[in-house]
Specification:
With 98 residues, the protein is mostly helical. The chain contains four helices and no strands. Helix 2 crosses helix 4.
């Protein structure tokens, strides 16, 4: 199935995960894939990947002293973008198989 939006979508992903930022690209990539996430971030990133609507102010507050607002923002955006990409690709595969 041809996806006319794959190129711009992949470019956004590349910029978020590999572009200039406060957070190391490896950590942003780990958050996007929900693989190899540091232990202190694992609960937040997993929650974003599985039930993002359940993320609370407390989830963020307990990490602010360690990561600060800018890094937390980048980690959260990376996780959300990775989770949405995984769902989109699963949906496209399902359509292709149907």
């Amino acid at each position: 199935m041809h996806d006319p939006h794959s190129t711009p979508r992949d470019e956004v992903l590349h910029r978020v995960l590999d572009g200039a930022a406060e957070t190391q690209p490896a950590l942003r990539q780990a958050a996007a894939e929900n693989i190899g996430v540091p232990a202190d971030l694992r609960q937040l990133v997993d929650k974003i990947h599985t039930h993002a609507y359940r993320v609370t102010d407390g989830d963020i507050a307990r990490l602010q002293a360690t990561y600060g607002d800018d890094q937390l923002f980048e980690i959260i955006v990376s996780a959300a973008l990775g989770a949405s990409r995984q769902r989109l690709l699963a949906g496209l595969r399902a359509l292709e198989e149907a």
